[in-house]
Design a protein that fits this description.
Shape: elongated
Largest sheet: 8 strands, mixed, barrel
Oligomer: single chain
Number of strands: 31
C-alpha cells in the first residue's frame, strides 16, 4: 500500500512514473503524469504487465532480460503505446529503487514526452534544408560592409562577376576594391550617384541595374543590416540577371534568416575554420568575436583544434548529419556560459563536406532555473533550512543504518510559544525575519551530523543523529537556554520562549511520520503544562490530544448552543467606593467539560484563530448591555479586551463604529483593553487606527501592564488613557517588597503622565490598604465582586452607596 504522502509526491512529478514489480513485471502504481501520458487510468494499468506499454521489439527484448540485467537500468529514446493505439515518442529511463518498509526494491519506469522535441528537430532540419538549398543555389556575388563601407565579407561569385584581380583580394584594400568596381561600370556617374544615395540612407533597401564594361548586366540589390533595431551595415548582392534570375528570393531569405535568427549562428568551411558569425553569435561570444574569424570553430569553446572533440563531431555528422550537445562557452569577463550547440554538416552531391553551420542557444537562464528548482525542492524558502523532503531522505537513511547497527536516534519537534502574537502585532515581515534569526541560533545548538528542518510557520523539526534520551534532553535544555538569550532586531531586544516535544526511534515510532506525530503530541503536552519546557512522548498523550481536539470542537459549537455568556466585573473608585466601570469577561459552561477556565480556552482560541469570532461576539454583547443600562439611567463605561489578531482585522474600526451607531451608545462609554504587543507595532496603519479610535472618544487601556515589553515610548506617543496593573504584582503586595516597588512605580508613572491606573485582582483588605496608601485611583477584583451576569451586575449598580464608603476608602459592600 502506497502512503498518501508518497502518492502525493509521485503525483506532483512532471515525469510519468510506473512502479513495476521485479518478479512479475506487473505495474503496482502509476502517477497522474503516467495517466496523462499513456491515456490509461491507474485502475486500468495497475496489475497489468508492463508489456502493455511496450511498442517496439527492442523494448520487448529488454523486459525479457533477467531481473539483474534490467536492474542495470536503461536510458534511451523509444515509443510508448498509448491507450488509443497511437505511438508517442518518449525519453525512457528504468532504474531499480528501494520501496516499502522492508529492504525491498521495484523497477521505476519513467518517461517524458519527446513529441515537441522531435517536432523542433524536424523544424530545425527543415530550416537547415532550406538554408542548405539557399546556399547551394546562391549564384550572386555578395559584398558585406559596415556603415563606414569597410568590407566585412564577400564571396567568390563577386570576384567572378566583377573580375576582381587576385592582388586586390590579397591586399584587402577596401578603397582599392571599391575604385576598381566603379571602373568596371559603364555609366560611372550614375553608379557614383547611386552609391552616394545609398550611403546617405543606411536603413533603406534598393535595387538597381548595372551594366559592366564587359557587357555583363547585373542586378544590384542592397539590404541594410540591423542589430537591436539599429543599422550596422549593408549587404550588396550582384546577380547576372541573364542567367540566374530565379535565385534572388532564396538568397535574400537566407541572408535574413542568418542575420535575424534568435539563435547564435556561425558558419565554418570544410576545414572547420570560422567564416561567418551572425549578430546573435557575436553578442553571445562577446567583444572578442572578430578575433575568431579564420580560427578553428572548436576554439570558440576553448578547445582550439581539439582532435578528440572534432572526432566526436565528425562521428555525429557521419551518423545523422549533425552533432548536438551542451558545451561551455568562455566569455570576455572570464566567466563561462552554458550553450546548446547543434552543428550541421553541408555536403555536395558527392558527399564531400563543403561547409558546416553551428546553431547555439544560451542555457544560462535555463541552468539557473534548474538550480533554483533543485534548491526549492529540498530547502525552505524563508530560512534556507532543509525541508521535510530532505529530512525524510536523511531519516530514511538513518533508519536503514539503525536496522543494521541496532542504534537509534531522536526527533525533536519545536514550536515557538505565542509567536502568533509577534505576527499579529508586529506584522508578518517582522515575524519572518525573527524566524530567520531563530533558525540561525538553533543551528548553533546542533552538530554537523544533526539536521534542522522547518516544517512551516514557527514549527521546526530536529533530527539528532544517534541520539538517545540523555542526548535529546541535553540538546533540548541547551536550545531552551539559548533561545531565552536576547535577540536584537531593528533596535529592539526581545527573547523567545519555545516548547519542545521529543520522540525516540524505534520505541516511539518506526517512520518519520510517526515520530513527528508523536513528538508533536509531546510538544502540545508541554504547552498545556505552561510552555517553555520540553517533554518526551508517552503513549497516553494521544488521549490528551484527543481531549484537546474535542474541547476545540466544543468551543466552536458553544456560541450557537448559547453555552457562552458575558459577565461583568466592577471597577471601583478608591476615593468614593463607587463603581466607575466594568470589564466584560467571557464565561463558558459546557455540559461535558463543566465551567471551562478562560485560561484554558482563550489560548486555544488564539492559536486556532477563533478568537476573532469570540472577540466580535463579546464586543457586540457588551455594547448592547451598556446601551441598555445607559437608556435605563445607569450609564457606565464598559471595558472590552481586544486580542492582537482581532485588532489587526481590516474592518475593526468600521465594525466598532457601526456597533456604537446601531445601539446608540456614546463612544465615551466604551473602553478597549489592549495588550502591549499590539502597541509595539510601529507601522503607521496601527498608530492611525489607535488615533481614530481615540478621536471618536473611545477609551484605550493597556491590560496586564508590566508583564510585556513595557516600553515607555508608546505611552508618550499614543493616546493611552489608562494602565491596568497585572494581578500577579497585586497578589504580592502584602509581603513582597519587589511587587510593592513595581506597583508603586506604575502608580507614580501614571500620575506623572496623567494616565489613570487600575489595580486588577484585588482580593484582600490588606491589598486594598496598600493600594490606598500608594494613592491608586481604581481597583477591581473579588474583594468587590467577581464577574457577574448582566442582571446581577445591574442590581449591584442600583444598590445605594454604603455610608462607610462615603467617609473612608472602603470596598463596596456586595
Amino acid at each position: 500500500m502506497i502512503k498518501r504522502e508518497t502518492r502525493a509526491w509521485l503525483d506532483g512529478l512532471q515525469e510519468a512514473v510506473w512502479l513495476v514489480d521485479e518478479t512479475s513485471q506487473v505495474v503496482v502504481h502509476a502517477n497522474v503524469a503516467a495517466e496523462r501520458l499513456s491515456g490509461m487510468s491507474t485502475a486500468a494499468i495497475v496489475g497489468v504487465s508492463v508489456l502493455k506499454l511496450v511498442a517496439t521489439p527492442q523494448d520487448i527484448a529488454f523486459w525479457s532480460e533477467p531481473a539483474d540485467v534490467i536492474a542495470a537500468g536503461i536510458h534511451s529514446h523509444t515509443s510508448l503505446l498509448r491507450a488509443d493505439g497511437s505511438l508517442l515518442p518518449v525519453d525512457r529511463r528504468v532504474t531499480r529503487v528501494a520501496w516499502g518498509p522492508e529492504p525491498a526494491t521495484v523497477f521505476m519506469l519513467t518517461m517524458l514526452d519527446r513529441s515537441s522535441h522531435e517536432a523542433t528537430e524536424r523544424e530545425l532540419e527543415k530550416l537547415l534544408s532550406e538554408l542548405r538549398a539557399t546556399l547551394d543555389s546562391a549564384a550572386d556575388g555578395m559584398l558585406v560592409c559596415d556603415l563606414d563601407r569597410r568590407v566585412r565579407a564577400f564571396n567568390h561569385r563577386l570576384v567572378q562577376l566583377w573580375g576582381l584581380p587576385r592582388d586586390l583580394l590579397v591586399e584587402r584594400d577596401d578603397t582599392a576594391i571599391y575604385a576598381y568596381m566603379a571602373s568596371q561600370v559603364a555609366d560611372a556617374a550614375f553608379y557614383g550617384d547611386r552609391m552616394a544615395a545609398i550611403e546617405r540612407e543606411p536603413t533603406q533597401e534598393s535595387t538597381d541595374i548595372l551594366v559592366l564594361t564587359t557587357g555583363v548586366v547585373l542586378e544590384m540589390r542592397t539590404v541594410p543590416q540591423f542589430s537591436q533595431g539599429q543599422p550596422v551595415g549593408r549587404v550588396y548582392s550582384y546577380r547576372d540577371i541573364t542567367r540566374q534570375t530565379e535565385t534572388q528570393a532564396s538568397l535574400r531569405l537566407a541572408a535574413r534568416v542568418f542575420e535575424s535568427s534568435l539563435d547564435a549562428i556561425f558558419i565554418a568551411d570544410s576545414q572547420h575554420r570560422l567564416m561567418r558569425m551572425n549578430p546573435g553569435c557575436e553578442r553571445l561570444v562577446g567583444l572578442t568575436a572578430k578575433v575568431f574569424e579564420g580560427c578553428m570553430a572548436a576554439s570558440l569553446f576553448g578547445g582550439g583544434s581539439d582532435a578528440a572533440f572534432m572526432e566526436q563531431v565528425s562521428q555525429g555528422w557521419a551518423r545523422e548529419g549533425f552533432w548536438e550537445g551542451e558545451l561551455w562557452l568562455p566569455r570576455d569577463n572570464g566567466a563561462y556560459c552554458a550553450v546548446q550547440l547543434s552543428w550541421v554538416a553541408l555536403r555536395d552531391d558527392e558527399g564531400r563536406l563543403v561547409q558546416s553551420i553551428g546553431f547555439m542557444r544560451d542555457l544560462t537562464l535555463q541552468h539557473a532555473a534548474q538550480k533554483r528548482i533543485e534548491e526549492l525542492a529540498y530547502s525552505d524558502v524563508l530560512t534556507g533550512l532543509p525541508n521535510r523532503l530532505l529530512l525524510s531522505q536523511r531519516v530514511d537513511t538513518a533508519i536503514q543504518g539503525a536496522r543494521q547497527s541496532d542504534t537509534g536516534f531522536a526527533i525533536l519537534f519545536l514550536d515557538l510559544d505565542r509567536f502568533k502574537i509577534i505576527n499579529d502585532s508586529l506584522g508578518h515581515p517582522f515575524g519572518d525575519r525573527v524566524l530567520q534569526l531563530v533558525a540561525e541560533r538553533l543551528q548553533t545548538c546542533l552538530r554537523q551530523t544533526d539536521m534542522l528542518c522547518r516544517l512551516g510557520g514557527d514549527e521546526f523539526v530536529i533530527y539528532l543523529h544517534g541520539g538517545d534520551a540523555a542526548v535529546a534532553e541535553s540538546v533540548a535544555r541547551r536550545i531552551l537556554d539559548d533561545m531565552l538569550k536576547p535577540f536584537m532586531l531593528d533596535g529592539m531586544g526581545f527573547s523567545i520562549q519555545s516548547s519542545i516535544g521529543i520522540a525516540l526511534y524505534p520505541q516511539d515510532g518506526v517512520t518519520l511520520d510517526d515520530l513527528i506525530k508523536q513528538s508533536d503530541t509531546a510538544m502540545y503536552r508541554v504547552k498545556e503544562r505552561g510552555r517553555g519546557s520540553y517533554g518526551f512522548y508517552q503513549p497516553q498523550m494521544n488521549a490528551n490530544l484527543l481531549a484537546r481536539m474535542q474541547m476545540e470542537h466544543a468551543m466552536r459549537q458553544a456560541l450557537g448552543l448559547h453555552r457562552m455568556a458575558v459577565h461583568y466585573q466592577p471597577q471601583v473608585n478608591m476615593a468614593t467606593g463607587r463603581i466607575m466601570g466594568a470589564e466584560a469577561l467571557l464565561r463558558w459552561n459546557d455540559p461535558d467539560f463543566g465551567a471551562v477556565s478562560p485560561g484554558v480556552f482563550i489560548p486555544l482560541a488564539e492559536e486556532s484563530g477563533y478568537i476573532v469570532t469570540l472577540g466580535a461576539w463579546v464586543m457586540e454583547q457588551a455594547v448592547r448591555e451598556a446601551a441598555l443600562w445607559m437608556h435605563s439611567g445607569m450609564p457606565i463605561m464598559i471595558s472590552v479586551n481586544v486580542s492582537a489578531l482581532e485588532f489587526r482585522q481590516p474592518d475593526f474600526v468600521d465594525r466598532i463604529t457601526r456597533l456604537l451607531a446601531v445601539h446608540q451608545l456614546p463612544p465615551t462609554l466604551l473602553e478597549l483593553e489592549l495588550t502591549e504587543t499590539i502597541l509595539l507595532q510601529d507601522a503607521q496603519e496601527m498608530e492611525q487606527r489607535l488615533r481614530v479610535l481615540a478621536d471618536l472618544g473611545i477609551g484605550l487601556a493597556i491590560d496586564d501592564f508590566g508583564t510585556g515589553y513595557s516600553s515607555l515610548a508608546y505611552l508618550k506617543k499614543l493616546p493611552i488613557h489608562k494602565l491596568k496593573i497585572d494581578q500577579s504584582f497585586v497578589r504580592g503586595l502584602a509581603d513582597d517588597d519587589g511587587d510593592r516597588a513595581i506597583v508603586s512605580a506604575i502608580i507614580s508613572m501614571g500620575r506623572a503622565m496623567h494616565v489613570e491606573v487600575v489595580a486588577e485582582g484585588v482580593e484582600t483588605e490588606t491589598q486594598l490598604a496598600v493600594l490606598q496608601q500608594m494613592l491608586c485611583e481604581h481597583y477591581q477584583g473579588f474583594l468587590c465582586a467577581p464577574g457577574l451576569p448582566a442582571d446581577q451586575f445591574l442590581a449591584l449598580l442600583r444598590k445605594p452607596l454604603p455610608l462607610a464608603a462615603q467617609g473612608a476608602r472602603k470596598p463596596l459592600n456586595t
